[in-house]
Amino acid sequence: MTTWKEFSISAPVIAEVFTRRHAATKNLCMLATLRADGFPRISPIEPRFFEDELWLVGMPNTTKFHDLGRDPRFCLHTATVETEPNEGDAKLWGRVRDVQDKEVHARFAEAMFEETGFDLRGQEFEHLYAADLIGASSLVTGDDSLDITIWRPGEPERLVHR
What we know:
By secondary structure, the chain is α+β, with helices and mostly antiparallel strands. The chain is 27% helix and 36% strand. The chain contains four helices and nine strands. The longest helix has 15 residues, at 102-116. Pfam families: PNPOx_N.
């Protein structure tokens, strides 16, 4: 599996599109998980970058986190509001890793407070999910063009121009 830092080095085009769109939507993305009955679920989420990793975090005890606890596979898509995403969009897929290290939890809470003012310091985290990536793609449109960049671990990014 590939951490965000490793991914951003091996797939810089997709990482840039994801990071730019993530920031443009105030961190909002759409998370796809698998429900207990096997059907997909799509939920809003505000993933965070922390210590060179991408973290899928949010309100505890929600169905999306129950889904991830049961089946760690996910797809994360930058929120797109236009029919022609001229600014691009990106999709990441992989598996979450539940980090149970209390020191990491404390550092995460401190970083969250410093960055946003939201205070989780001193709270217990039932789960803290780091994203390990197994694939990604981005799409950028031009006047009459469409550039799709695709990445898999161990391979360079591949551009499909249409």
